[in-house]
Specification:
Elements: H1 27-35, E1 39-43, H2 48-59, E2 63-68, H3 73-82, E3 90-94, H4 100-114, E4 119-122, H5 137-147, H6 149-165, E5 168-173, H7 176-180, H8 186-206, E6 211-218, H9 224-227, H10 231-239, H11 249-259, E7 271-274
Helix pairs in contact: 2-11, 4-6, 5-8
This protein binds nicotinamide-adenine-dinucleotide.
Length: 282
């Protein structure tokens, strides 16, 4: 029978063994680390994908601010309940990303409270579907104001702080439909393709300042946005996804968390598709 090895009996007795020195807990270092917590802003932060992105970033130790429309007070209250277990590391701030001044005031508020905005995730988005022949200028402009101007309005207001401090992570949520085009979505597809063009250009402008800018392009996900399509079209979509299911918000949130990490500094100007194989390219 093999006798279990007693580590204390190998060379020396427990008594003669030098005591393993445990590093003293550096309270001041811990406090400093707490103060140094990166601040992450997530627009559309109480939406289907945004709320899971907030949770994943908080689990990664970020101080998270979920930004969404003031008009969604009821949903904001429910969100507050949902994230109560995070002990205050996720909170809500109202702002309208389609309004430059609203974004400017928001960033000024956050920087005053926290000193910095280190991570920005632009997930606010809307759809205004119609074939081009039926699309009104209002449907076109409303969508552009949120899905594309919103990305400009937020990035424009955080970029100086990030480059001055020498650190930043910007993750813009695009869409597979920006890569492939989609019937009834000339406005949405144009805005989402625009988001990636914007991200590549900004990535070049900020690369030497420690600021990365990337896009995540979700495929079809199990969120209210997709629940709005008919059951028949939904079944058709799932049949076309090689993985055989809709994406879960956590699938997207994990990709965002990866790109927002401190050690993801060599990935910039990239698009990370998270679509279950629905659209493969390279
Ligand atoms: P959602 O509708 O659940 O959430 C979007 C959020 O954006 C909402 O909470 C809404 O209130 C907020 N919002 C809208 N207009 C705003 C404004 N002017 N200012 C601030 N907030 C505003 O949608 P979702 O499914 O969570 O989508 C999130 C992002 O992912 C969107 O950009 C969407 O285009 C993109 N996307 C979603 C899917 C999907 O399958 N759900 C697929 C590809 C891309």
């Amino acid at each position: 029978m093999i006798k279990p090895i007693d580590p204390n009996s190998m060379n020396q007795t427990a008594a003669s063994k030098p005591a393993v020195e445990k590093p003293a807990l550096d309270r001041r270092a811990l406090d400093r680390r707490a103060l140094d917590r990166r601040v992450a802003l997530v627009t559309g932060g109480i939406g289907g994908l945004g709320s899971e992105i907030c949770r994943q970033l908080a689990l990664a130790g970020r101080e998270v601010v979920a930004v969404d429309l003031a008009a969604r007070g009821e949903r904001a209250a429910a969100f507050h309940e949902e994230v109560a277990s995070f002990g205050g590391s996720i909170r809500f701030e109202p702002a309208d990303v389609s309004d430059f001044d609203s974004c400017q005031q928001l960033i000024a508020r956050i920087e005053q409270q926290h000193g910095s905005v280190d991570i920005l995730v632009n997930a606010a988005g809307i759809t205004r579907d119609a074939s081009l022949r039926k699309m009104s200028p209002q449907q076109w402009h409303e969508l552009m104001r949120v899905n594309l101007d919103g990305v400009f309005n937020m990035c424009r207001n955080v970029v100086d702080g990030m480059t001055e401090r020498g650190f930043g992570r910007i993750v813009n949520i695009s869409s597979v439909n920006g890569q492939t085009g989609q019937f009834g979505q000339t406005n949405y597809s144009a805005a989402k393709a625009g988001v990636h063009g914007f991200s590549m250009a900004l990535a070049r402008e900020t690369a030497r300042k420690g600021v990365t800018v990337n896009t995540v392009s979700p495929g079809y996900c199990d969120t209210p946005m997709v629940a709005a399509v008919s059951a028949e079209i939904r079944a058709q979509i799932i049949a076309d996804i090689p993985v055989g299911r809709l994406g879960a918000p956590a699938d997207i949130a994990r990709a965002v968390k990866f790109l927002a990490a401190d050690d993801a500094g060599y990935i910039t100007g990239a698009n990370l598709p998270v679509n279950g194989g629905y659209f493969m390219s390279f």
